[in-house]
Amino acid sequence: MRNARKTFLPFALPSISEEAIDEVTQVLRSGWITSGPKVKQFEQEFGKFIGASQAIAVNSATAGLHLALEAIGFDQNSAAITTSVTFTATAEVVCYFGGEPILTDVDPLYNNMDSRSLELSIKKFCYKKNNKLYSKKTKKLVRAVIPVHIAGATCDLESISAIAKKYGLYVIEDAAHAFPAIHKEQFIGTNGDFTVFSFYATKGITTGEGGMVTTPHSQFADRIRRTRLHGINKESFDRPSWYYEVTDAGYKYNMTDISAALGLVQLKEANGFWNRRREIANQYIQEFQNIPGLQLPSDFEWGSHSWHLFRIELDPSLAKVGRDTLCVELKDRNIGSSLHFIPIFEHSFYRKQFDYNREDYPNACKMYDRCLSLPLFAGMTNDDVSDVIRSVKEILY
Ligand SMILES: Cc1ncc(COP(=O)(O)O)c(C=O)c1O
């Protein structure tokens, strides 16, 4: 194919500096490779970065979401309201308990849960009794709302929190895409009852696999510190003697010092990564703005996008080609792309288990037909960016 790159450009790659490799190597040589001083330091510095009082490191965001639900006493008689446009992890943790994920549609621009979609789902799928919400389908008590800051665009947290407060729901923010992101002059991670970050390989910063939970509630923070490691009431690295007590049936969700060492260096580099992603996103926006049928993401006036992903939408009635053709033609030019996300209700497990109805989610369905994520990561060279711009223009003009 004419104009194809010589090497494949994935839609995301981690940026690992020599300093990070050196720090991880030091931990490997130190004799203490699992949860220890590096994890503690990473928690403190992460908390300081975003301004959160309590930060608890775990081995994935999925684990963090699970532990947040566990901390509030979520059980098989509970339901949580979350968005239909997310990765399976967000809904799957509700199923770990035998609970019900009640889905919302999304706003048409950012594809986030907003007050309109949340209220609509409450009206359609819930009933109220004594100021509490119950699922019409399963009669389970709704305990939490789990908004997701898709791609790093922050949700309307004030409206969501106001609705949550009205019905006594905890707000557990899935911020897997939102480090760092700013909402109303505050970093994401300082608003809800819990915020859960991901440090998966392609995220804003990475620890290989990993996650962080922030919460202003010290009793929940204490519980998560225990439940992430077998329900043991003392962290292994400052156990003075052989004694420890198991207070709960916990999990094996602790982060290792190997991961935390990488995380500490990534944290120092986070602003640089963020600036580079912002620069690339702005360049795409400038270059693509007149392409017919192409809807672009944008920064927003209420804060700053993390630019974890650059998600575009193609209107099939106006664009030269549809989303699937764009994806294939980019691949022919050696450029990767991806879709964020196949809506939860499209997956066979959720469809069979909860009998969702596509008609309830028109914006999510529209997104699913039209959306594609273009390459965006801090390590992209100027040539990589130019290749994407040239290819997208070639295909869509
Ligand atoms: C929106 C969302 N939530 C949760 C997760 C789970 O993150 P982790 O892989 O750290 O468990 C992901 C992972 O990609 C995600 O995209």
In CATH, the topology of the largest domain is named Aspartate Aminotransferase, domain 2
Overall residue-averaged pLDDT value: 96
Give the SSE string: HHEHEHEHEEEHEEEEEHHEEEHHHEH
**Secondary structure tally, helices:** 12
The total strand number stands at 15
Q: Could you say which structural class the secondary elements and strand pairing correspond to? A: alpha/beta
Strand order of the largest sheet: 1-11-10-7-6-2-3
Q: Mind telling me the C-alpha Rg?
A: 21 Å
> Shape, please?
globular
CATH superfamily heading of the largest domain: Type I PLP-dependent aspartate aminotransferase-like (Major domain)
What compounds are bound to the protein? pyridoxal-5'-phosphate
- Name the helicity range: 25-40%
First-last Cα distance: 17 Å
| Portion in beta strands | 15-25%
Could you say how many structural domains there are in total? Answer: 2
Can you tell me the CATH architecture of the largest domain? 3-Layer(aba) Sandwich
The low-confidence parts are none
Indicate the CATH class of the largest domain.
Answer: Alpha Beta
Considering the chains and any ligands shown, give keywords for the structure.
397 residues, alpha/beta, Aspartate Aminotransferase, domain 2, Aspartate Aminotransferase, domain 1, 2 domains, 12 helices, binds pyridoxal-5'-phosphate
Description:
- With 397 residues, this protein is of the alpha/beta class.
- The chain has twelve helices and 15 strands.
- The strands form four sheets. Strands 1-11-10-7-6-2-3 form a seven-stranded mixed β-sheet, with helices on both faces. Strands 9-8-13 form a three-stranded antiparallel β-sheet, with no helix packed on it.
- Helix 3 crosses helix 7.
- It is globular and about 70 Å long.
- The mean pLDDT is 96.
- Bound molecules: pyridoxal-5'-phosphate (PLP).
